[in-house]
Amino acid sequence: MITALLLSLYLSQDQNNLVLNPDFSLANSTKVGPDHFQLEGTTTWSWVGFSDETAIRGIRFNSFGAQAYGSVSQMVEGLDYTKGHWVKFTVRARADDGFSVSNDKLALKIDFYSKQGTAYIDSAERLIYREVQKDRKDFSVNGNNGKAGAAVWRTYLFEELLPFKEVDSLKLTLSFHGGNGQSKDYSQFCATDFSLIQEQSASDGRKEPEATLKQSSSTSSDQPLIQLGGRWFYQPTTEEHIALSSDGKLLKSLVINADNADRFFYKDDRMVNPFAGNMSAWLRKGYLDLKGELVKEDRFIKDNVTVTFDGSGFINIRARNIPNHQTAKFPDTYGTQGYNPSYIQEHDYQYRWPVDPKPSKKAIAMTDRDANGALNMGTVGIAVNGVAFYNPFDAGMQDASSIMDRCCGHPSPDNRYHYHKYPICVNTPFVDKGTTHSPVIGFALDGMPVYGPYEAADIMARDSKSNPLNAFNAHFDKVRGWHYHVTPGKFPYIIGGYFARWW
Ligand SMILES: [Zn+2]
Ligand SMILES: [Zn+2]
User: In the chain, what are the domains?
Assistant: First the structure.
């Protein structure tokens, strides 16, 4: 009975995820391991935050000790070739500063099976340790006081084309070998939130080879895409009727929430779903609810973010501003967050900006310490999870970028959680490995998109010589139009003014 209840809870988070017990919250019959998963080596199942953080369950690999190894795996059933020829395996994980392996042996692996999981067909593996090392090189400066900016939760991804249409089961494995961590306490790799989703195309837009594409064309090609204005599109289901005027304007409001976020697209060099997986959140024990009352038990908030198109030429966003990732505990009694006395609270904010923002003659970039007031205090935009971006300052014009929790956020005196710099923890439309232009991670109040840090492979936009950012932290390219970039370690970190100021 309890299992059924919890299962329905998972489903409400992502009904397409085929992994059972994906957040590791349920114990197996022995009570010492997570249900549906197999653990090997030095892998343990426990809370995976520090004591000053809101804790969730997951597994820990400890790389301390000669040649340490470990793995966690699950046999996943119920694959259906007609639902998509690609499989997307993701894991949320955090590599502490001392986690170390030899020969890059930190891996995501998929074993493919047919005949209800009894006949092994093939396997594929992707090593991810170099991504850990790259983050350490690129983002240490993004952390608290310029340290540990890479030791935050982020998503690791492995996408594969199903090798045969007979595949009906998969074994998903996360493993490490040859551990050589140097310290007992900070040599861990923690993981949670396993996900396996079938998709029609890979997140970089790759489709299957021509031949298989033809076979699948009758499955779920749905209706034509509807352009909502600017770079925004919606893909209705076969049953859905979206009323449009003769010139293609919406006649009735279209509401996007967790149920249809994967049908809501933003177009740049590919079609992405920036809000998918970002519209729900957990209101955690110790946070405050909308009324300001202390939350006693974790509560799932399905409609943390809602987007509405009403044909007015504006996009309307309603956000409860609850972070959908790990946070530190606030008020901070441990001293790790500068004894911040504020809470993380549920709010009800509404934002509105043009669907097709344009550069503005009224745009003014911030001067030193924002002496010209080009950027207001408080919210200057939102990340794709609905959490506010602030300008670089806190009260008293102190640079706020060095007193954040490990997901780069903290609450303000009015109990609003916010970011002053690149929030690596936020789920992005595709996993940013720093090998191409970053994905969109949010929007400024002028409607212009904010992208992650990279301009091209191994080049951060902040360092770009060929297409440098202006004083607004914006630049133009033909594919994305005008857009902002976050600039880890470099003021103003998110935006330097409203380049498409429309008010
Ligand atoms: Zn702040
Ligand atoms: Zn760019």
Answer: 2-199 (2.60.120.260)
